[in-house]
Sequence to fold (310 residues):
Amino acid sequence: MFTSVQHLFIASTLLTTASLVQASHQCAADRVSLQVLGSGGPEFTDNRASSSYLISLDNRARIMVDAGAGSSINFEKSGAKIQDLDAILFTHLHVDHSADLPAFIKASFFTPRRSDLQVFGPAGNRVMPSTTAFIRKNFGPEGSYSYLQNFVEPDQRSAYKIQATDVPLTPHEVSNHSLNDDISLQAIPVNHGPIAATAWRVNIAGCSISFTGDMSNQYKTFGTLAKNSDIIVAHNAIPQGAGGVAARLHMQPSDIGVIAAETNPGKLVLSHRMNRSLGKETQTEAEIRKHYDGNIIFADDLDVIQPASH
Ligand SMILES: [Zn+2]
Fold:
């Protein structure tokens, strides 16, 4: 049996800039909001939850992007309801982006949720499992949390099923996923060193919110995905001039500036703030300002950001 999402799945479709521009011009900005559930990285000394974002329509949380450690407590503080979520999107499966997923699934048992939960994330590579394998390794009959296997292998106790989808990692190609009448999703592979990773664009009520996830911008393809997004969330994990492994995994602020100039977001949100980038906001903003003169927001946990017309 195919799900509606699988029926509507259109693999590897290149988008035209015209269709993206049209989508951004119809944004119902007063109906859509982005809430930052986690503005930090994996450190325990940044006083922030790890990466996670919530997108709401008409005050109902519909999409969660990443579920890093601490996101579940901030989800609770946000007042969102697990039964309202249509889908969870993973940019990649590092601990600081995925560790709280089992907590969300267990908590859903105590809610009225009855509709299947879509989970989208990257296909696997030699370093990382695919998203479908990640779900199976967590919740399958042989998984770490096999006592929750009725969420992946439904039986009479099951309230709903997790429907996992692997997003292809075909270089330079956008994949489209039509979720329902309100929401469509788009992803493109990005370079995060050897880690399987994608950026996401969420199109909701005519608004577009795009997420770089963790990436080095080595592929230079984020602009293809995120052109004219109302909000772009870019990960500011390193300061300008960082080198070594960190620079192979993450964008310099100057890269973020180039991306912002290329995509022209209504608002640019800087998140995934770590000890090495915290305290460097003046320098970081100056680097970005060389390329982009729009609205820059340094994210904190539980910030609520609404789309801006531009
Ligand atoms: Zn990260």
Summary: The longest helix spans residues 253-263. The radius of gyration is 18 Å. The chain has ten helices and 14 strands.
